[in-house]
Amino acid sequence: MTSLALPLVDTERLRRHVAALAENRPGVYRMLDAAGRVVYVGKAKRVRTRLLSYFRAAYPEDKAARIVEAAARIEWDYAPSEFAAGLAELRQIRRHRPAFNIRMNRPGRTAFIKVSDGPAPKLQVGRTPIDGAVRHYGPYRAGLRLREGVRVLSLELGLRDCALSLPMVYAEQGDLFGAGRQAACLRYELGTCLGPCAGFVTRSDYLARVDAAIAFLEGRTIAPLDRIVTAMTRASEADAFETAARWRDRFEALEWLFAAGNRMRAAIEALSFVYIDPGVYGDDRAYVIRRATVRASAPAPRTPIEREAFRGLVREHAAPEPVEGPLPTDAIDETVLLLSWFRRHPAALRRAVPLETWLARAGAA
């Protein structure tokens, strides 16, 4: 590791040291402030070129210039490849939680469907995963279609979409109500919310609807679509064509959401293999990837003993795993990273070997 400790304001001297010492190799770099706190972590295919670009950025409009102005020291570590550098960057961001890595260097168009915790969960779309007792589904491509699909799903199941801070009470808490209770918004009057804010639904009935939303997001039921088809058909048979068109729009929104979830689950499941990643200087590494997360890695095995040892790692993670369920919160960013990497580098899949095939080849050898 190379570390440059310099005065906060002496960016020109810092630039000269980077130019003199940094190499054009893959790696991870850290910007530290005068107190030694990591303020930014990044990765580069060519460390020297990337770091020098910070000093050409215009201050204060460019984020790169603001980062380097806050840095009193730059550290970097080299990695075998760009792929290895991306994994190392992610792990260092998790460890240091730098102020400038507000989105974990995640692709800007990535979003998730989140099922909140609390007494009356709700569905929401966001780009930042939340730690704690929250379910995450995706990743999806952020956009209006995603938000519309989630909105329609909430409408169809009567789930609230109000602020999480709004107090919730259920029908069994009758002693909390006075006469003339009223819902906080018009959705209850319109029949699109069960009214958990005013005690119009029991806890068990509301949570049953939340479970139905989760089952839809996990691809285990299409019941909300069935209800829309029934309503659309009745409206059409009654010659209420405007009403039928509105139901059709709802159907298309939910159909897109269901299909997008299925595509993403299939993409995640497809990233289950042994990936041999070539190092820039011949230091290749082998990764055991399962459901778009790295479960184990080691130098690429070359000898019979090394292949047998690596076979043990593969066997440990080759057992089938359920496809349904939310994304593990602690693995979300790694899943996004791997999905993005293999989407942008499809040729890398030529170096991927299915887990079962690897085990069979190792056994034959």
What report would you give on this structure?
The chain is an alpha+beta fold. The protein folds into 3 domains: 2-96, GIY-YIG endonuclease; 110-268, no CATH class; 271-364, no CATH class. It is 43% helix and 17% strand. It contains 12 helices and 11 strands. It has helices spanning 11-21, 47-54, 63-70, 82-96, 144-157, 187-190, 203-217, 223-237, 241-270, 304-316, 332-344, 355-364, and strands at residues 2-5, 27-32, 38-44, 73-78, 110-115, 123-126, 135-141, 273-277, 285-290, 293-299, 352-354. The strands form 3 sheets. The chain has a 4-stranded antiparallel sheet. A hairpin with a 5-residue loop joins strand 2 (27-32) and strand 3. Helix 5 (144-157) packs across helix 9 (241-270), helix 8 runs antiparallel to helix 9 and helix 10 runs antiparallel to helix 12 (355-364). The longest helix has 30 residues, at 241-270. It is globular.
List the helices and strands and how they pair.
Blueprint: E1 2-5, H1 11-21, E2 27-32, E3 38-44, H2 47-54, H3 63-70, E4 73-78, H4 82-96, E5 110-115, E6 123-126, E7 135-141, H5 144-157, H6 187-190, H7 203-217, H8 223-237, H9 241-270, E8 273-277, E9 285-290, E10 293-299, H10 304-316, H11 332-344, E11 352-354, H12 355-364
Antiparallel strand pairs: 1-4, 2-3, 2-4, 5-6, 5-7, 8-9, 8-11, 9-10
Condensed summary:
The chain has helices spanning 11-21, 47-54, 63-70, 82-96, 144-157, 187-190, 203-217, 223-237, 241-270, 304-316, 332-344, 355-364; strands at 2-5, 27-32, 38-44, 73-78, 110-115, 123-126, 135-141, 273-277, 285-290, 293-299, 352-354.
